[in-house]
Every structure is written in structure tokens, then in C-alpha cells.
Amino acid sequence: MNVNLNDIRNFLLEHDNFLILMHQNPDGDTTGSGFGLYYGLKSIGKNARVLCSDDIPDIYKFLNKEYQETDFIEQFVISVDIGSENLFGDGLEKYKGGVDLNIDHHFSNENFAKYNYVDATSASTTQIIYEVLDKMDIDLSIIMGRCLYTGICTDTGCFRYRNTTSKTHMIASKLLELDFDHSEIVYNLMESKSLQKLELEKHIINNMKFYFDGIVGIAYITQDMIEKSGASQYEVDGFSSFVRQIKGVEIGVTIKEKTKTFCKVSIRTSGNYDASMICSMFGGGGHKNAAGCIFNTSVEDALSELLERIKKIIDGV
Length: 317
Hints:
Blueprint: H1 5-14, E1 18-21, H2 28-43, E2 48-51, E3 76-80, E4 101-104, E5 115-118, H3 125-135, H4 142-156, H5 166-176, H6 182-191, H7 195-206, E6 209-211, E7 216-221, H8 223-229, H9 233-236, E8 251-259, E9 262-269, H10 275-280, E10 285-286, E11 290-295, H11 299-315
Parallel strand pairs: 1-2, 1-3, 3-4, 4-5, 7-8
Antiparallel strand pairs: 6-7, 8-9, 9-11, 10-11
């Protein structure tokens, strides 16, 4: 069943003992949404807990510094920034089919919960969480502001992507009134990098390939590259938009090898091509200009399959 913001407000105010799920390989939006909602619920005396199948990357750990695990029996399960139950990860498998409220902004969302609120016009799920907390008349704290601002920055590329709207700027402006150091968040998210990440960049650039008169750029990251560079898992996941930054590239593909027979693909596109349509051909999804999918094959086989499909799209077949 699809619900509106008022329905969510009533649901959260009338119930208690919430478990909040975040997606595997957590990014700034799911982390900011999960902890932002947690702090909001705790501020009005509700019991809440946040759960993710993977560890929170170090870069986002400032968001859970005030998090306190409390002992209660969960009664209602909420998912944030999760478009499909396939993104739960191994640690959350038991919650498949058991989510009560699904809050998300991916138009490819599979509406897997009892109640679903999916706003594909929202730049981030944290933008929706802001609206939820506002509906509940919750006074935002500094830590809530940091959480929500982090998610917005992550999913808009610090207000550079097409999904940034006037509402996004308005909400960001309201958050900045809380007087936290937003410049530090932006620096840590977008501008700083370790020597290990720089070494990994060198490997990626040296192995980058271009196709179809430079319209398509392909970068791949193998386990061997990661081992040689010493980069962390979060740093490995930070290259999704790397290829699209190259002038002339309209479809940027990043293939990340997990094992010799399993890899993850991230696609970023210009306005002329639909990333989610490409990824949906392989069981994935996302947004028009940012989407992902997985392949149970080698990097080479994934590359071959992707190029075959992308060529047909470019040729209009």
C-alpha cells in the first residue's frame, strides 16, 4: 500500500519499538537517513534501533557517535533508502517480507513493504526524512542536521547533480541554521583522499577504456588493484562517478570485482541516456542518471555483456 507523509507521521507517533534497516555497503544517504530518523524518534521518547548488514564506513562514523543501543523487542521494521530487498545483504535476510514501512527515493523501488512511501522527485532519502520529522514537529538537533545534510550532499554530489531542486536547497538552508560545521562534512565527503586511494586511482586510470567514439568510458577495479593500493572498501566504492567526469563521456561504467565470478557495476550517465534502463536489463535499477546492477561473472564477461547492450542503445536498436 502506498502512503503519504501524514500517514507516516501518524504511524510513527502511534507506535513504538522501531527497527530501522539500512542497505548493504552503506553510503551517506542510507546512513544519514537511518541515524537521522533514529535520533528523531529517540527525541520524542520512542525506542529505536538501527541495523545494517555491513559495518559503517569510517567516513560516516561521526553520525553514530551519539547512538545508544537499547534493549527492547522490535515491533515495527522500517527500511530507508532501500529500493529492493536484494539490497538488504546477508545479515538482514530474515527481514525479507517483514518490512512495515519503506521510505525511499528510487523510482525503481519494488514497493516490498506493507506501507510504501517512494518519492522519486526527492534528491535523497534524507530529504524525505527531513519532511517526516518536520511533519512530526520534531525540533532538529545538531546531530540530526549532520545526518540529513550528509545524505543530501552524498546523493547530490554536493548540489552538483541534476536531482538537486529548489526544495533540496531550501531544506539544506534550514539544516544549516542548526550551525554545525558543514564545510567539514563537504571536505571529508568530497575533497579529501588518502595516499592509498590516490594509488588506486593510478591503477584505474592506467586501465581505463573508451568505446563508441568516446561516448562510453569503462573503469574496472580488480581485487589485485585493491591489494596493491591498500585502499579501504569505502574508498573502493567511491569511484562510481569517476568516469563520467571525463569530457565527452556520456555513459560512465565502473565495474568492481568482488570475486573472480562476481562483480558490481555502477553506471552514471548524461541527460541523453538512462542508467536505470541499462541496469534494469541485468536485474538492477536506480535513477535515470545513476544506477547499478550485479553480474555473477568475471569482469571481462560483464564488460562484454554491457558493451553489447549499450551499443544497441546508442544505435537506437
